[in-house]
Please model this.
Amino acid sequence: MLEILINLMTLAVGAGFIGAISGLGGGVFIVPALVIVAHMPMKVAVGASLISVVATSAGASVAFVRDGWTNLKVAMVLECATVTGAVIGAYLAGVVPTVVLELLFAAMMLQSAYFTVTKRGDDIVAKGDRLSERLDLSGEVADLSGTTLHYEAVNVPQGGALMVVAGLMSGMLGIGSGALKVMAMDYVMHLPLKVSSATSNFMIGVTAGAGALVFLARGDIATTVAAPVAIGVTVGALAGSRALAHFKVESIRTVFVIILLLVAVEMGWRALSGI
Amino acid sequence: MAKQEEDRILRQWTPILLRSILIAAMAVLGAGLVLSYTFAPDYYVEHFQAAQHGHLIGKETLGLLFERVRQGNPHAVLTIGLFVLTLVPLARVAFCFILFIRERDYTYVALTAYVLAGLIAGVLAGRIG
Model:
């Protein structure tokens, strides 16, 4: 028993740490690790992964919100789009073949990886557009050196449109799609990368939480797997969220690209192996 | 009410809310894992192997779940712990909703109400489906 517990928790601590820093939630690692290494069926892995995303989001947000990395208003505006997508997605699941979605998602991840590789630093804009000013989406965050960084948001409708797609993917594929969320905020809305990842972290908890509740209510969660994963991921996320300020934007981008490629491979593999 | 005040309350109270629910969930989950050893030494490994074969406990009514918690059933205690954990995101959307009502920030009242309604619809759709 102890051996299994230690293995599960070690995996989960790592997943929570990287999930918190990248804003992707850590489910990316949990699913393949449980399926390939622990020989769990896909359904058990997805259930544990949903729980792990909720735990990462909650654990990481404690420090991210307190330190000002999470832009709560951006999160709330965009959550409307994600939730819309997720609800439509939940209804559409079964109508559109999953294989098509998974391949599409894999292709999107590859494209995101390409964009991320070609981008350097943050491109902060000096003035927000009318809608973002109306919604009061600008923010300030103090970096480690103590300098305060002021940023504005632009292109809210375009960012929102991408969030609907992210929600659709979550609803139909049962994934957090944090990668798309970070992309939408970083690229389209010109928010700083660390703010994008912290805000994505905050948001993924909501859709994953709804998904996890459905799984729990149906009794579809293997508690002996999900419980140690939840504990480990929370510890990892708490540590990761405190470490965020110490990382350079470029190193986060590198981690982000590696994860995007991993997701692409994972989704491609899921599509082609018919799981 | 000034926007700064609203932001200050959000930034101060959201982490406290998150941390309290997280601590409660972790305590219940920890207790459940300890219970699974004291309940029967092989309980954990047996259930882990059953999960590997795709055998899950399945749907239980809330009444039955609480009855089992009283009996010290580890699976029931762990399920409660996971339920508490999944309440974190819902609780904080609800918290924001209430705060925005209090601050009369009606744009955000509408936005958070929409998110809450969507989440509830999603959960209900999932339960029916």
Notes: The mean pLDDT of chain B is 86. Chain B touches chain A through 62 residues (CB under 8 Å).
